[in-house]
Specification:
- The complex is a heterotrimer of chains A (321), B (288) and C (390).
- Chain A is mainly α and 321 residues long.
- Helix content of chain A is 70%, strand content 1%.
- The radius of gyration of chain A is 20 Å and the shape is globular.
- The two termini of chain A are 21 Å apart.
- In chain A, 55% of the residues are buried.
- By secondary structure, chain B is an all-alpha fold.
- Chain B has one domain (3-220).
- Chain B has 11 helices and 2 strands.
- Chain B has a two-stranded antiparallel sheet.
- In chain B, strand 1 and strand 2 (139-141) form a beta hairpin.
- The relative contact order of chain B is 0.20.
- Chain C has 390 residues and is α/β, with parallel strands linked by helices.
- Helix content of chain C is 39%, strand content 22%.
- Chain C has helices at residues 12-22, 44-60, 84-94, 106-119, 150-162, 176-191, 210-219, 230-242, 262-265, 285-298, 304-322, 330-339; strands at 4-6, 31-37, 64-65, 68-76, 99-101, 122-125, 142-144, 167-173, 195-202, 223-227, 251-254, 273-276, 350-351, 357-367, 370-381.
- In chain C, helix 2 (44-60) packs across helix 11.
- Classes of the chains: A mainly alpha (321), B mainly alpha (288), C alpha/beta (390).
- Chains in contact: A-B, A-C, B-C.
- The B-C interface holds B 1-2, 4-5, 8-9, 12, 15-16, 108-109, 112, 116-121, 123, 131, 133, 135, 137-141, 143-144, 212-220, 223, 254-256, 258-259, 262-263, 265-266 and C 40-42, 44-45, 48, 174, 200-203, 205-208, 210-215, 217-218, 220, 230-231, 234-235, 238-239, 242-245, 248-249, 260-261, 263-266.
């Protein structure tokens, strides 16, 4: 599948991204770092949407929960240990996804979409309305976690270049992990559930458990993205959990073409680039953004990842479909 | 809470619930019958409220604005269905989510371009601009009672249309099996167009009725959208009756939540939803 | 990519003279102002008013601040805190602005302030009222041209205690601006011998107030103090009046209750008393000139937000002048701003050690769709800046 196809272009893409810090411009290092975080987020959602056929419209909740976890778990005047807060934040997101999964996976189709949304709203209001995380003002993460192990510090997250490569490494790891996972028996069952859940059930699979596993894992990886986001920007707010963010990440997935990990990464890049460019062109950028979204859905059902295929077919005079 | 307050709070719950029903009913119809998830439903509510503002400023009367606004909303809905939504029936839900998400951005921006970003008020029609004294200090606006009456009337009318008319029969049949209806030679495309336009008009009407008490402002559709989703989930997708029951439940939960447990009132409604889902994953009333 | 608006204000000759007369290291460069404000969404009208006010001052000055030409880099912050850090960084590190001006939403402003502190960029907050900005999070680089949430509410607390009211119910959205306003009110009101009967809150931006009105009616307090703003405030005031409470239990609040939304509340708003650092019907010449010019330039009446934008430009101008027009001489620039007396349309004000305006708070009454000044209820009120170590 994806992992084997066209390895070279992917290696080249990673190599190019790895060169960004050479520019020395912190703005670009940070913005590309953010896009990489969003790419992890989009891949985690793609596991649900593209591979398992579960359209979650509340994925931002798990992103936000881990982001808040870093901020809440870090002492105010000191740096927390990366090796504690990273697993802890991811675990919290995974736990939240597991519990929510128990509820939402009892539903299907439109229900599933709306129920995931409603649970994400619940999480949003918990951070927005209770004093837990500073309410609607959000909270700062003043000290980035320290990577020291018994006094030895392999890298420093306070250094923007180190942090950038840490994020890039995480993204590559997540990609490899998911690509591998999808090859495994577990992954094959997920794909089987997407194409025909009844068939999988009649084959004797407890599809609910597999779906719950996928949902929890997606929550955990979304949490990883949220963790990195909080470390990158040092500020968390309830808006990270809002349904607009859930909508944006869905858009990244579909832009890249569902069920395509590399596509999810490309979708994240395309989405952020569009937003930047449109906002620079005009005050009415939301009109352009909305127009592009509508056009993509109507005219590009396969997302960006489908474009090369379309062009190829058109050139060959084949039937474009 | 003394007994008089309790009764008034009950009235508040009913009145709020009924208004929510009006928005959610259009949503559940479109969901249930056409199988379309429509995030832009809140925008239709917003469009209705702004129509009420623009038309009542032009004509000097909210009643006139509603009389003119409903046909406009119907036409608007039919055009949208023809131009965009009719392409979505065979697509998966994800694409429906995205297209309607894009529409929200477009509608909000157009609203900003056409009417601006200010907060506006809409005058209550003179013949309803009065209050009924309930207690020594508290009175109840007649207009709120009138809205409730309109909502109840619409609920009855919807029930009648769906259960008793030929259109309703076709709607119910299309709901269950699209290909069968088509094989009977019924123009299902036309039915869908009518249903969608009806859904838009219901949301717009809710916006028009709510405009005098909520005023009109940017992003006003967003909150209404999410709460409508919750109602549709609790009530059961496609069930107008379920939407009514669920809207009243939400009305009560929200009202009494604010009074009894103010710290958690933001999440009360969602907790109710979670409980209902545990009990009945398909909502209180499955479609019907 | 940069979306910059150039102000064509003066000729090449005057530019040359200005450059020659200043003679700083960067004297020939333009001053770059980063406007990070909401231009879409709920607060779009406020963002536009602030921008108008800022630009008006610059234009009155021949397109200059501190004797230097001005150019703008503009970002729509969408009032979205999730994008705030990124947007602020974009202005600071990519556009290399000399000063950050923003914003309306407190959560966004707090994120901006962090960027400003971290990158040592000067920042002027032209609205956001979060106490923390000039409290625990105060910084030499962060200034405010508007108010702290504490100020107008504290003044109202004093005023109502002086009136002899004893028993008050408060209502607000459950978010920090609302809670800080209520806290400021409570502090002054209890100091003056009053008592808060009940503090009610509801989730932002929920506007279903009916349950609270019913409860207020059964509690029958001497008065009600509320914090709401914009559309929510218009709805609260209308509902309050429609529930028949307005005639029996007076309603008070900080001025945001009746600013920019009087048209929406109509007759229900008439007679309301609110406190704010600006009002209609002020009699100083500065305000009259400001209003005339604003109305002619933008074809609408200015509001408090326009004043705050205007004053943000004045403050920076004062700082730049003190630094000889060189934004790089930050210490002198900050000193200049700290020691300036700003000749504002609201009445002259100075800045506190935490960089918040020390200003008069007016009692205003809604009359004929305007917030007409009644009296100054608190002269030169200074935010206590609790937790600020400056």
């Amino acid at each position: 599948m994806n992992a084997h196809a066209s390895l070279l272009p992917k290696l080249i893409a990673v190599a190019i991204i790895a060169c960004v810090p050479l520019s020395g411009e912190s703005f670009y290092i940070e913005i590309v770092g953010k896009v990489l975080v969003m790419a992890i987020f989009a891949m985690s959602l793609d596991l649900l949407v593209g591979f398992t056929g579960l359209v979650s419209f509340g994925h931002a909740a798990y992103f936000g929960i881990a982001a808040y976890a870093v901020a809440l778990l870090s002492p105010q005047y000191d740096a927390a240990s990366l090796w504690v807060v990273l697993p802890a934040s991811i675990a919290l997101s995974a736990l939240a996804a597991f519990v929510v999964g128990l509820f939402v996976l009892r539903t299907k189709g439109i229900y599933f979409i709306m129920v995931t949304l409603a649970f994400a709203q619940m999480a949003y209001f918990i951070f927005h309305d209770t004093p837990l995380g500073g309410g609607s003002d959000g909270m700062y993460l003043d000290n980035k976690p320290s990577a020291a192990i018994f006094g030895w510090e392999p890298f420093e997250l306070t250094n923007e270049v180190h942090l950038f490569y840490f994020i890039l490494a995480m993204m590559v790891l997540v990609y490899l992990f998911l690509a591998r996972l999808l090859q495994s028996p577990f992954g094959r069952v997920l794909v089987g559930i997407k194409s025909n859940e009844h068939r999988m059930q009649s084959l004797g699979y407890f599809t609910f458990r597999y779906k719950l596993g996928a949902f929890t894992l997606a929550g955990a990886l979304g949490g990883l993205a949220g963790f990195l986001y909080a470390v990158l920007f040092g500020f968390v707010t309830p808006e990270l959990l809002s349904w607009h963010e859930s909508g944006n990440v869905l858009l990244m997935v579909i832009l890249g073409g569902m069920g395509n990990l590399a596509g999810a990464v490309a979708g994240a890049f395309a989405f952020e680039a569009m937003r930047e460019i449109f906002a620079d062109i005009t005050k009415y950028w939301q009109l352009l953004m909305g127009g592009v979204i509508v056009a993509v859905v109507l005219f590009l059902p396969g997302g960006l990842a489908g474009v090369p295929g379309r062009i190829k077919r058109a050139l060959q005079g084949g039937e474009a479909k | 809470m003394d007994f008089a307050s309790f009764l008034i709070q009950t009235l508040n719950s009913l009145q709020y619930g009924l208004l929510l029903f009006l928005v959610a009913s259009g949503l559940t119809l479109v969901f249930g019958i056409m199988g379309i998830i429509n995030l832009a439903h809140g925008s239709f509510y917003m469009v209705g409220a702004y129509l009420a503002f623009v038309l009542s400023s032009a004509t000097g009367s909210l009643v006139m604005a509603i009389v003119l606004g409903i046909p406009l909303a119907l036409v608007f809905g039919a055009i949208l269905e023809w131009a965009l939504f009719s392409h979505l029936y065979k697509r998966d839900h994800l694409e429906q989510v995205l297209l309607t998400y894009g529409l929200i951005l477009i509608f909000e921006q157009l609203r900003s371009l056409l009417v601006g970003d200010d907060v506006h008020g809409v005058a209550i029609p003179a013949f309803l601009d009065a209050s009924i004294q309930l207690t020594e200090v508290m009175s109840y606006p007649v207009y709120r009672l009138a809205i409730s009456a309109v909502c109840v009337a619409l609920a009855v009318a919807l029930y009648y249309v769906i259960q008793r008319t030929r259109l309703g029969m076709m709607i119910r049949a299309g709901n269950d099996d699209r290909s069968m209806v088509e094989s009977l030679g019924i123009n299902i495309d036309m039915i869908y167009r009518v249903v969608f336009a009806l859904g838009v008009a219901l949301a717009a009407l809710a916006g028009m009725l709510a405009a005098p008490i909520s005023s009109v402002f940017p992003n006003m559709g967003s909150h209404v959208l999410i709460i409508s989703f919750v109602i549709v989930v609790i009530g059961g997708i496609g069930s107008v009756w379920g939407a009514l029951v669920a809207a009243l439940i939400v009305g009560f939960a929200d009202t009494f939540g604010k009074v009894l447990i103010p710290e958690l009132s933001g999440i009360v409604v969602y907790v109710v939803m979670a409980v209902v889902l545990l009990w009945r994953p398909e909502g209180i009333l499955k479609k019907g | 990519m940069g979306k910059t608006v150039k102000i064509a204000g003066s000729t090449a000759l005057s530019l040359a003279i200005a450059a020659a007369s200043i003679g700083g290291a960067h004297a020939a460069d333009k001053i770059k102002v980063g406007l990070m404000l909401p231009y879409t969404g709920t607060y779009a009208a406020l963002g536009n008013a602030i921008t108008n006010g800022f630009k008006q001052y610059v234009e009155e000055n021949g397109g200059k601040l501190g004797g230097r030409e001005v150019e703008y880099a503009v970002v729509d912050d969408e009032s979205n805190p999730a994008k705030a850090t990124e947007n602020a960084r974009k202005l600071v590190s990519r556009e290399k602005v000399d000063v950050l001006v923003g914003t309306v939403h407190s959560g966004v402003a707090l994120a901006m302030a962090k960027v400003a502190r971290d990158t040592r960029t000067l920042m002027i907050v032209p609205n956001a009222g979060a106490n923390d900005l000039t409290g625990p999070l105060c910084s030499p680089y962060v200034f405010r041209s508007s108010f702290s949430a504490w100020q107008p509410s504290y003044a109202m607390g004093e005023a109502l205690a002086r009136k002899g009211l004893k028993n008050i119910v408060t209502v607000t959205w459950k978010y920090s601006f609302g809670e800080e306003s209520v806290a400021g009110f409570k502090e002054a009101f209890e100091k003056g011998g009053g008592k808060i009967a009940k503090e009610m809150t509801l989730p932002f931006p929920n506007v279903e107030f009916q349950p609270f009105l019913t409860e207020i009616a059964s509690l029958k307090p001497d008065a009600v103090f509320v914090f709401f703003a914009g559309a929510g405030a218009a709805k609260f005031v209308s509902d309050y009046s429609a529930a028949g409470l307005k005639s029996s239990i007076p309603l008070y609040g900080p001025g945001f209750l009746t600013d920019g939304n009087l048209d929406a509340m109509g007759a229900a708003g008439e007679g309301l008393l609110t406190t704010l650092h600006y009002a209609d019907g002020l009699t100083n010449a500065r305000d009259a000139a400001f209003r005339t010019k604003y109305a002619a330039r933008y074809r609408m009446q200015p509001d408090v937000y326009a004043v705050q934008g205007y004053d943000a430009a004045q403050m920076y101008d004062a700082g730049l002048r003190a630094a000889g027009g060189d934004p790089g001489r930050k210490e002198e620039l900050i000193k200049g701003m700290e020691s300036a007396t700003i000749d504002s349309p609201r009445g002259a004000f100075t800045l506190s050690r935490a960089h918040n305006p020390v200003q008069d708070i007016y009692m205003r009454e809604v009359k004929g769709g305007e917030n007409v000044v009644v009296e100054i209820v608190s002269k030169g009120l200074e935010d206590p800046a609790r937790g600020c170590k400056l």
